[in-house]
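Hi all, posting the design record for the shared folder.

TITLE: backbone redesign
STEP: 1 of 1
STRUCTURE INPUT:
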């Protein structure tokens, strides 16, 4: 693995904890001491220090020394690297979603076209046929139907008779 992906892994691991993200949010407002940073989280100073060590290891926080006071401040560079890395995937997903949107619009247009075709066909089929165009009224159809009926009667066999016991 190259150094950049290792730094990203460490940054994302540090950001995985909601307490550390909240600490970074508080530090984004300005420099603050470790004890003041731990105060709103209702945790002990050693627990807050552990969270700060993880943030320091990821390069997200820098501590300095001012006599007995140890102020902390945010270092945004690792966040910028993580944001740049995510921006590549953002472009990919936005492009994918744009293509999906275009495809859905195409499907909706085709569906709308089919609906209008079905409406046109149903309008045509609801028109009453006049006897001159009705095929069942034509003499050729009537004679063919008569032949078919007469053939059925001559070819059908009657059921055998049963003898009574």
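Okay, here is what came back for every position:
SEQUENCE:
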């Amino acid at each position: 693995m190259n150094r950049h992906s290792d730094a990203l892994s460490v940054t994302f691991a540090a950001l995985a904890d909601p307490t550390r993200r909240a600490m970074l949010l508080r530090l984004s407002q300005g420099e603050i001491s470790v004890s003041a940073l731990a105060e709103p989280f209702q945790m002990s100073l050693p627990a807050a220090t552990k969270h700060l060590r993880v943030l320091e290891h990821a390069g997200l926080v820098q501590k300095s020394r001012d006599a007995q006071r140890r102020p902390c401040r945010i270092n945004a560079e690792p966040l910028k690297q993580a944001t740049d890395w995510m921006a590549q995937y953002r472009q990919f997903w936005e492009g994918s979603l744009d293509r999906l949107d275009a495809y859905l619009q195409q499907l909706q247009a085709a569906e709308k076209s089919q609906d209008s075709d079905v409406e046109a066909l149903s309008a045509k089929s609801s028109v009453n046929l006049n006897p001159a165009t009705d095929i069942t009224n034509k003499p050729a159809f009537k004679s063919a139907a008569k032949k078919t009926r007469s053939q059925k009667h001559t070819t059908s066999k009657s059921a055998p008779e049963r003898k009574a016991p």
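COMMENT: Helices lie at 3-15, 18-27, 34-38, 45-57, 77-125, 139-155.
Let me know if anyone wants the other runs.
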